[in-house]
Write a structure and sequence with these properties.
This protein is of the alpha+beta class and 293 residues long. Helix content is 20%, strand content 33%. Strand 4 and strand 5 form a beta hairpin. Helix 4 packs across helix 7.
């Protein structure tokens, strides 16, 4: 704890081009190498959209591959596998299932079932829960044919399924800080977030409060109903983060010193050195800087 200051479808691999050529030697002594095969750097995985003649099972398999590849993106390619109405209804941020194995099977003329061996689950607020060794989940997808006869997903379960490797590469563990009951110590709670707009995700989760298992052991200076408006943290040069909280009056009435301490501690690991908080669009601005102890 810290003390509060003052209180089937495929994916495409793109590899960087090697500049220059090296000749293969045809003479000279035989030498021993180190025998170590080093992983190629600069590999980027790109999602591939649906094929025109893909059957329902191939469409769902492509959807899963695309969402895994775009887990830190906007899911633009992934949504191409969805029917028009479902493109706005499907919520990839609802949850994350970390899978050790998936099996795609067509179980009806327009239905596909995916069996997932689950390693772990992550909820919308970044709470990580390791699954039992035999944990499995069944996901069902309903499909329709569009005007050109192409299969598309009319209903997809919210959330995404990712491989363990993708989770290790694209998710980041970050501590949120709440207050001890006497408001003299900061108490961390670890959450996991997609490695994209992490400061915004951290602030949203902090505003939502501690997890149920921790709630009775901590308190928070965040006023009830506080929201991030606009819904993003702005990052400036020099490690400065700027954000606006609503409703303005509730933020002004809160213990701003403690609120700023929670925000600064939660954002510090992301390289943020200064936090500017404004209460409402035209309200009072407060500033948090790193503690000096």
């Amino acid at each position: 704890m810290s003390r509060v200051r003052g209180a089937a479808p495929a994916v495409v691999l793109v590899v960087g081009v090697l500049v220059g050529c090296a000749a293969i030697p045809t003479s000279g002594p035989v030498t021993e190498g180190d025998g170590v095969v080093r992983e190629q750097e600069g590999v980027v995985v790109l999602a591939q959209g649906p094929q025109a003649d893909a059957d329902p099972a191939a469409i769902v398999e492509g959807f899963l591959l695309a969402s895994d590849a775009e887990v830190t993106g906007d899911f633009e390619v992934t949504r191409q596998f969805l029917a028009a109405d479902e493109r706005t209804e499907w919520d990839p941020g609802a949850s994350t299932v970390v899978a050790s194995r998936t099996k795609v099977e067509q179980t009806g003329e327009a239905q596909v079932t995916v069996s997932v061996d689950v390693s772990a689950r992550l909820d919308a607020d970044g709470r990580y829960a390791e699954a039992p060794a035999d944990a499995r989940e069944t996901l069902r997808y309903e499909l329709v044919q569009d005007a050109r006869g192409h299969w598309r997903i009319a209903h997809a379960p919210d959330g995404v399924v990712v491989t363990a490797r993708r989770f290790e590469q694209q998710f980041r563990a970050t501590s949120l800080y709440f207050l001890s009951p006497d408001e003299k110590m900061l108490v961390p709670e670890v959450r996991w977030f997609r490695d994209r707009n992490v400061p915004t995700a951290v602030v949203r989760a902090l505003l939502a409060g501690p997890s149920p298992w921790l709630r009775d052991a901590v308190t928070t200076a965040v006023p009830a109903g506080a929201e991030l408006k606009p819904e993003a943290v702005t990052l400036e040069q020099g490690g400065v983060a700027e954000l606006t909280l609503e409703p303005a009056q509730a933020v002004q009435d809160a213990d701003r010193g403690l609120l700023l301490a929670q925000l600064e501690a939660s954002l510090r690991a992301l390289g943020i050195t200064t936090v500017h908080v404004q209460a409402g669009a035209t309200g009072r601005r407060s500033r948090a800087v790193p503690p000096t102890w």
